[in-house]
Amino acid sequence: MAAGLYIHIPFCRSKCPYCDFYSISYQSSLAKDYVNILSKVVKKINTKIDTVYIGGGTPSVLSVGFLKRLLKSIKNILESSTENTIEVNPESISKDKLILLRGYNINRISIGMQSLYDSKLKFLGRIHSVKEAKTAVFNAKKCGFSNISIDLIYGIPDEKLSDWKEELKQAAALPVQHISCYSLILEPHTRFYSLRSAIDDEAVARMYLFNMWFLPRAGFSQYEVSNFSLPGFGCKHNIKYWQNLEYIGIGPSAVSFINRKRVKNVSDIKKYVNRYYAGKDQAMYTEQLSQSKYAKELAALKIRTKEGIDFGWFKTKTGFDFFDIEDRKDVYKLKKRGLLVIHKKGGADAGIHLSRKGFLFCDEVSSCFV
Question: What residues does CATH 1.10.10 cover in the chain?
C-alpha cells in the first residue's frame, strides 16, 4: 500500500500566541539551506507515495524561487500522487505562487483563514485581514484550485454563539470544498496559556454542536471530529493518520510511521541542518509498536471519525477481534454514559461510533482505547 509524505516547512512571519507547533521566524539564508537539504532528502524516498502534504509553519512564506526548488525536487512524486496539499496563509500567498503550485500539480490548498472578523484575527495574533483571507480563496479558485480548504477557530474568550453562527454561515458560502473548525486550545508553553480560565467550556460545546448541525445542512458532511467536506473532498492524507496507515515525515519535528515503527525527527531546524551535513540520524525518538499496541492505537485514532470502527474491518486490519484488546465492560460504560453507539448485526456487536454527545468528549473516549 502506498504511503503519505509530509514535508515540514518550519518558518512563519510571526508566531501566533496559541500555536504549539514547531516554527521559527523566517530567515532567507536558513530557508535556502533548508530547501536545498529537503530537495536531496526526498530523492532517497523509495516508497510509493499517493498523498503529499506540505505543512508548517507557513509553507507559503517561502519565496517563489525556494518554492519552485522544493516542488521541482518532488515533481515525479507530485505527478503520480493523487492528492497534493499545501498549507498557506492569506498574507503570503500571491497569484504568482498559486500559479506555480498548480503548475506542479499541487491540487489541494489549505488556507489558514482562522476567522472572518478582523477583531478576532487581531486577538488571535494573525497578521492578515478578512479581506486578504477572502481574496486568497477567490484567487485560489481563479488559479485553478477546485479543492480548497479553510481553517477556522472558535471558542475564544467572551465569544458569542450568535457571532460564531454568522461567521460559519459566511464561511460556508465561500467557494470552498472543505472546512476545518478547531476550538481554541490553550497549550502549555504558549503565550495564550494564561487565558485558560477565561474559556467557557459550555459556550464552546454549544458552538461545536452548531458546527455539527449547520455544516451538513450547508452540504459539508462531518467525517472527523473537526473536519467537514463536500462529498468526495475529505482530506486523503489526514485520513491516513486516523487509519494508522503508513507515512513518511521530512523536516524538524516531523514523524514517520512505517512497518509499525514510529520515528520523530529532532525538533530544531539548526540541529536538523547540522545533523544532515554531519551524516547523522535525524531521529530523536523511535518506537516499534507491537501488533497489539498498533491495534489499540488504531482504535483510539479511528474512533475520531464519523463512521467509527467496524469490527470486521478492524480484525482484517489488525488480526484481532475488537474485544480481544479492548475491555467490553469499558465500552459498555461509555455507551451507558451516552458517548458511544454500538452497532448490532445478527444480534452480535458489530461496531461502534461516537454519539453526538460523544464527539464533545472525543479525547476522553479515545484515551480509553490506548
Answer: 304-367
Q: So what's the architecture of 304-367 in CATH?
A: Orthogonal Bundle (1.10)
Of the candidates 331, 334, 297, 332, the residue with the CA atom closest to the CA atom of residue 317: 297
Below-70 pLDDT ranges, the chain: none
Instruction: Report, in angstroms and rounded to the nearest whole number, the Rg of the chain calculated over CA atoms.
Output: 21
In SS3 terms, 229-298 reads as ECCCCCCHHHHHHHCCCCEEEECCCCEEEECCEEEEECCCHHHHHHHHHHCCCCEEEEEECCHHHHHHHH
What does the pLDDT read at residue 297? Answer: 97
pTM of the model: 0.96
Q: Specify the residue for cell string 490506548.
A: 370
Cβ-based neighbours of 304, under 8 Å, separated by 6 or more: 224, 225, 242, 354, 362, 366
Q: How far apart are CA 95 and CA 91, in angstroms?
A: 12
d(Cα 144, Cα 351) in Å, to the nearest integer? 41
Residue with cell 500539480: 105
Residues 290, 49: contact at Cβ < 8 Å? no
Q: In the chain, which segments carry CATH 3.20.20.70?
A: 3-241
The pLDDT value given to residue 189: 84
Q: What is the CATH number of domain 3-241?
A: 3.20.20.70
Contact 40, 241 (CB under 8 A): no
Euclidean distance between CA atoms 245 and 259, whole angstroms: 9
Say how far residue 189 (Cα) sits from the centre of its chain. Answer: 21
d(CA 211, CA 336): 25
- Going by C-alpha positions, the residue among 327, 353, 348 that lies closest to residue 338 is 353
List the alpha helices (DSSP H) in the chain.
28-41, 64-73, 75-80, 95-103, 118-123, 130-142, 161-172, 201-217, 236-242, 269-278, 291-302, 311-318, 322-325, 328-336, 356-360, 362-367
Instruction: Please identify which residue in the block is written with the cell numbers 458569542.
Output: 160
- Comparing CA positions, the residue from 95, 156, 169 lying closest to residue 122 is 156
